[in-house]
Write a structure and sequence with these properties.
- By secondary structure, the chain is mostly helical.
- It is 74% helix and 3% strand.
- The protein has 24 helices and 4 strands.
- The strands form 2 sheets. The chain has a two-stranded antiparallel ribbon. A two-stranded antiparallel sheet has the order 3-4.
- Helix 1 packs across helix 17 and helix 18 runs antiparallel to helix 21.
- The radius of gyration is 25 Å and the shape is globular.
- The chain starts with a helix and ends in a 7-residue tail after the last helix.
Length: 554
Amino acid sequence: MKNKKKLDVWVLISLGILLAYLLFLIYPMFCILKESVISNGQFTMEFFEKFFSKSMYLESLSNSFKVTVCATIMTLVIGVPLAYFYNMYEIKGKTVVQVLIILCCMSAPFIGAYSWILLLGRSGIITKFIEGIVHSIGFAAFKMPNIYGFNGILLVLSLQLFPLVFLYVSGALKNIDNSLLEAAENMGCSGVRRFFKVIIPLCMPTILAATLLVFMRAFADFGTPLLIGEGYKTFPVLIYDSYFGEVGTDHGFASAVSVIAILITAVIFLVQKFASDHFTFKMNALHPIERKQAHGIFNVLIHLYTYVVVGIAFMPQVYVMYTSFLKTSGKIFVPGYSLDSYRKVSKDLFNSIKNTFVIGGIALVLIILIAVLIAYLVVRRKRFINEIIDTMSMLPYIIPGSVVGIALVVAFNKKPLVLTGTVAIMVIALCIRRLPYTIRSSVAILQQIPLTVEEAAISLGCSKLGAFFKVTVPMMSNGILSGAILSWVTIITELSTAIILYNYNTVTLTLSIYTQVSRGSYGPAAALATVLNAFTVLSLLLFMKVSKSKEITF
């Protein structure tokens, strides 16, 4: 009876987590599906017909695919060689380089869009500088290429997301046994040929995983096209405009577009999973790759490539920090330096930081707790109900944030459970959206811990639950921390769900920045963005300190 009672604890945990997913994920998805096909109490397909009958809506879908596919390809072209050079050769200042690479992907994408407008927009500092030089030598008709529309979105997303590819591929390279590379070299396969014939195939499962993550992030992003798109409307922007249109809202149509978005991302996920299954294998590096010192012109080229890529990607953040200390007059910058921008946002800054840490902190604690429990259920207690939980936990991975936000509003804006406009709904949205990161890293690390460790603790009188939390969880700490830091940084930079769910009392730092940018108040926006970047840096340094790691991989 005693053992049965202990078993029931985990059964109750499984049922509790399953019910939570049914209530806060499946039910909202059902509500959004219902709203897309029900109008005035009658079944209808008019909202879907409206989408497929008008070219402007189909064009937004085409635009999203075009920019997402191109951005994904660009991130692979940039990120894979960068990871290869970084892990195979000695790069001077490699620790600083990696920190800068990570920081490039850990700020909100729309901040990158705003930064590039300041740099390459019609009145951007680089635009004026180059046009001034060219005009001075007699080419008065010269105009810089347009940063707005497709070009700007592609630039921002590529430089924002290539670090994800870099981190994933770096992790894969650390699992390659050096003897494989030596064997290839002994058989005459070296240099570029070895890179394409040996390195790429060995890293293919990870490259496909990184491709999916980049594709989903790029497809779901709406802050970037909203700021820099200038008429180049993408799918997430269409969803947002349909739900919060300036000339009236159409919740049924917004729900229909959301359903289409879910179907599209689900298909992409299944295609990626099918491809991954054909490249699935395990590697165990008994002799990990050791960095070598490159020589001659090749050494110069790999350093040049690394520094130029990282420099260009990080330049917008540096410029944002710089502009936060410029004097402002109204909404424009004037000569001189001051802390005016920080003074203007001091009141909003305090509230935004408080909300960011309260809402984000609660969400992170819940994410860690739930992720650890789900990891245990998936790895240690393989049952049908736990497989369902594992599948449900990955659904938000393929659902755009704006869709999650709309689904929660539709589901919980009326009795018996009204959550719209509360802190609770913000926390729930963040947990749903960011749980997959911590779950995957927790599962991966738990699979490496032998069950005999827990069995030994139980044989010494510890309960199964106690053995897990007192023995196994501490051994999982690195994996939990890796997922938690990624979850935390994405939490404090979250925009797509927050902009749909927030009210005056739940404005976060990211929302404050977006509000200032949309008003054209670039000085205050820069001040808030600088504070957000500072929190991101501190979070990263804290993670490296706690994990005692100088290098981070996913």
